[in-house]
């Protein structure tokens, strides 16, 4: 299975740190967030990754060149000309994520992992991959953490919509959806997507710049998008400066010395 790491964002929530560096290179215990995510993927047996770049793109590329052999094949998906958001970023990286043969691919090549660069977790990626159903267009890692915005799932954990509980806003492809009957779960920023998604982007009318969640919410009525909840998942969203201390404690307690080895 290949992986795409979202590293192109402006990192506005991490200012002032991201006024002088990309979010991907913000250090946690002396190592960039990008390094921590790459080593997490490598430990799961992923050996080919795509990193998209936009904000301080040169710095990310320079880091990857100077980091030496990380034991992974790394492709750069260059978004310097246009920050394409999450869905457009996936579409733009298509040439790296599609199966290597001319058919539909086989085994792990039938889908790919997408991982935000600012998420650290103790997720067992192999277990997460094992939860992917054969008919799934996408499988989203979700949790019961407190937030104002939730994804809505039916009894089969199929995506049915989205809600902002603070404002009461609901988005769904189902006009008669009973929100009270749905499970409300928070998206983690980690998902596994079928390689069959690329023609569906076009069929559903999505172009070069769009949020992936907009696509999921439109496509969910016709294409199965499922949620998977990991028990006792410990996850840190390193999106704000005040999360860096917690991220450091997480790295030290969960990963120990292994967090600082490249292999």
TrEMBL record:
Gene3D superfamilies per record: Spore Coat Polysaccharide Biosynthesis Protein SpsA, Chain A
Protein known as: NTP transferase domain-containing protein
Keyword Metal-binding: no
Recorded GO MF terms: nucleotidyltransferase activity
InterPro entries, alphabetized: GlmU-like, NTP_transferase_dom, Nucleotide-diphossugar_trans
Record keyword Transferase present: yes
UniProt keyword list: Nucleotidyltransferase, Transferase
Residue ranges of domain Nucleotidyl transferase in the record: 2-124
